[in-house]
Amino acid sequence: MPLAIDPEARVPYVLESDRGKEKPPKFFLRPLTVRQFRVANSIDERMNAAEDSVTVLMDGVRAGLVGWENITNVSGQPIPYDPEALEDVLSMTEAVELMRAVQTAGKLDASEKKVSDSLPCSNTDNSADTASQASAETPPAK
Asked: Which of 35, 47, 85, 87 is the most core-located residue (most Cβ within 10 A)?
């Protein structure tokens, strides 16, 4: 199933200010479809054109947010996941950071990319050798 429409696809994200904490607050994002990515990618332009740029920003964050954990109020009590509560949870800087994370949720991080790059594209052991040999045997076009 394509990642962007997989209901189980969730990309965890920890805000920069919370990285390194023992039990950091974590947001769960979903990879966007190409159409959703186009909309999210134009967020800066849309924010500049809107009278209420905060609403545009928060709508963009909500488009990719599917959950959170370890989010607590000032008394340390857990705040249940509710996308409408975002404006009571995030600072503006964090909202912008989370929007950037939504925009890139479908991309592989460096460690995932290394694993992905090391996987064979086919099960043919010597496909590169075979292709090189075929190239060498094919006369140049005239």
From this structure: 47
